[in-house]
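worker-03 picked up job from queue 'complexes'. Input manifest follows; two sequence lines, order preserved.
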Amino acid sequence: MERNRVYVSGVGIISSIGNDRESVLQSLRSLQHGFSSYQPFEDDDLAEVQFVGLVKEFDVESSDYEDWSFPSPYKIRRETLRGLGPHGVYCYCAMQQAIQDCHLTEEEISNPDTGIYTSSAGSPMMLTYNVNRMRRLGPMRCSPTGIVSSISGTLSFNLVANFKIQGSSCGFSSACASSGHALGYAFDDIAQGRQKRMFVVAGEDANYESILPFAGMRALSLEGDPERASCPFDTARNGFVSAGGGIALVLESEDEVNRRGVEPYAEFIGWGQASDGHNVAISHPEGYGLARAMKLAVANSEIDAGEIDYINAHATSTIIGDSSEGKAIIDVFDSQGLKPKISSTKAITGHGLSLASALEAAIVSLSIQAGITPGSAHIRNLDPIFEPLNIIRETESESPSVAMSNSSGFGGANVSLVFRRP
Amino acid sequence: MSDQTTTTRETVAEPARGSDELLKETLKRCSSGTLGAALEFRRTGDVSLVPKIVLGIIERSVEPDLVDQLRNGGDSIRFIEDLQIDSIDMIETVMMVEEAMGISIKNEELIELRTIGDMNTFIHEKISGMGTSKKTQFFPFEEVAAILPHQNPFLFLHEATLDDRSATGKYKISGDEDFLEGHFKGNPVFPASLMLEALGQLAVFLLLKKPLDELGRERVDAADVYFTGADGVRCYKICKPGDTLELSVSLKRVRDPIAVFSGQVHVNGEKTALVDEVTLAFRLEGSEKKINGENGAAEISGLNGN
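worker-03 finished. Artifact:
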């Protein structure tokens, strides 16, 4: 079946390394990380986590939306704000940014051919607050928007209603692969002609309740030096730095891009997914599922693996996860004599969980357009198991022609996305 | 940025239900005058403070350009049409009013409150218990539980609606009640004796909430009310988990320290149990009278204690 070509035409980024295209590109060029200390962890003797990839210029710490603040260019009405969780604010702003970025009119946003897929883990902080309040004061003294601001569909509920989306809408929940799935299925909807345009929006809170449970899993680095706390592929890696933010991507069919006369960042040419079937929290040690996801992505993109010249790795700076991915890449590429450049931008962004894949798709798209290939920061001693890989330590001033972006989530869910210079 | 983060999370030291701290937290965005009036009302019960508190609470949900209209428009100002307050604002407003006034507003009642004047009159009546335009008073579970001395697992009243001398209430049989495991083995049936108990609890609730002329409008002490008798009990229907007992009691006569009610239980409108007389013994607040002593014993027949 003839399928429609799909383009990334708009990007909105609210992230630890910047809240607009220029500052994100600046961070990618200089490989400047976005980590800082976090007061609630400093105040808590039992929270040994030192760094968080916090979003700057926003304050959404409180459970009361009327305490929140966000940068002045963004407008969120009070009746919208009260239905949002903290990451809903990031995502609402990212959505406004993406819409402005690719000049969409209200009619182009609200019509039966335009849909939205979202991913977030909900807001554990809002949920905790609301449930505690309910137990303490009874349900009738709880906010009527307590559910829609808390539970894991919160992004879809709010964005569909507020942006008057009429096409497909759905939330994806596969932990750190969530927004990869959202992007993949949004691609399918456009490729197969079900929709002409899809928003993919992903977000995470980054606060006490959303981050600290990962310390209980021993998944977070407790390092006191930010360059050691997130150092994918390094021998010293010992866990990730958690990050919050909101990402919005606009995907459009070739017809829409041509009709509207927009310059897309990148062409999204295909994707693949496969599961490890191995462990609830740990990736398959040989990267079995991820290797298959990459092979399927190559096939779905109708290219040869050799055309891929950059891989934005999932690598979060955990011992097992990075090693699994390294083995999977060796299997698919290096064992075939292929040497794509590889980097993990999580070294500077931190790991955004549900938003990770969308953030990295945005980074890949911006890099293709800006003519850079981001380097892998914070490597002092490369773990010998990654020796066969072409891991680049500095950002290069040449864009990839075909780039792959990997994501892996709990339960061994793996997604691989492929983008091409338009 | 870490230096900008303000720790306003509420995981530690949450203000308790009914505390001044909770009232302060609830009204934190209202003017200090509104909070002051609400705290004063809590101490004095002075109903003349109601309009000031209500206006102050509503003001915070209103866009700044409409505040003057609210302040100068008087009782006829309408919430939706004039103040552009939507249903969620209205619920938040009501939650604040409930906390400030110590009352509960049912959804059905809420629908009828269209203007500032409606709200003031409604609250005034609710507080003074006059009920000139609305005769009955509804109490949700949390208020029932706060007032009755009975508590889980021996509280068989999920809500109550009071008239001056009669009351209706509900209890839904969840099926999780421990005693159903043994009553009976493999066949959970709600015990008839507990239907009587539920009627007794509803009668106690009425006695505690309604000032009665026969008692010189003095309050009954919640720590000293006992079920002492039941006469003319007839049960008609077996009740199972999932059934809701529709309870009603009506005061037949009362004289310190004894009150006698008639009672009925219905399920889905079907007659389930009738009691000619449920008798309660009580002590008035501040009274030295012992209810098991010489004055009361002669009149107490049948079951004793609870």
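worker-03 released lock.
Confidence is low (pLDDT under 50) at residues 1-11, 293-306 of chain B.
DSSP finds ten helices and seven strands in chain B.
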